[in-house]
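Name: Thymocyte nuclear protein 1
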Amino acid sequence: MPWPSRKRDKGAVADKKEPDAKIAKTEEETPDKEEEEKSTKPPAGSSKSGWKNWKKTKESDSGGEESKITYCHWLLKSEPESRLEKGVDVKFSIDDLKAQPNQTTFWDGVRNYQARNFLRAMKLGQQAFFYHSNCKEPGIVGIVKIVKEAYPDHTQFDQKDPHYDSSSRKENPKWSMVDVQFVRMTKRFIPLSEIKAHHLAHKADGGPLKNMMLFTRQRLSIQPLTQEEFDFVLSLEEEKPR
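Structure predicted for Thymocyte nuclear protein 1:
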C-alpha cells in the first residue's frame, strides 16, 4: 500500500479561508517549509554559452521558429528525508516511488488551490521532473509520467491523515490527485543551485528559464513547465556538474 500523504503543498490552512476562484490565482502568503529555497548562491560564471549552444540546436531542429508557450510538462516536489507531520512520516523519495508496485503511486496530500488546479490540468502521458525538496541539497533526480488524470484525493476524508480536511464533502471534493509512474533517473543529479544560475543568466539574456516557476512561485509543490523549460533543464544532465 502506498505511503500516506507524503506529497503536499504547505499554506493550505490559509487557502481554506478563501474561495477557490480567488486563491487559484494567487500564491500563498505563508512561508513553505517544504521548499526552503534559501538556496546557496549560484556557482560563479555565466550560463550564456550553454544557453546559446542549446538554442542553436533547437533552432536547427525547428527551423528557428519559436515554439508556442504552453505548459505541457511538470515539476513535482517531494521530501526525501524523514519528517513527522501530525505523527505521520511524510518522507517520499524517488527510491520510495521505485519500490512501489509497478513503480506507480498516487500523488496525494496537495492542499493549495493553485497546485490543485495544476494537478487537474495534467494529461495522461505527460512527463514531470521528480524534485527532492526540503533537504540538504534540493534538486531534480528523475522523471515520472502521468498515468491517471485527476480524481478525488482520498486523504481529505481520512481523519487519521495529516491532510484531512473536515470542510471537504464527498459529493463535492475540494482536493484532487493523479497517479504517476517512474520513468527513469536523470543521468545525474541536477541541483537547484545550478538551475538557479541558468535562471539568473536567462533573465538577462532572454533564455528559456527566465520565468521558470521554480523561482517565481517557489513555494508551490506542483509547478508547470513549458516545453522549452523542460528541454533545457533535461539537457543539463548531459553536462558535467559545475
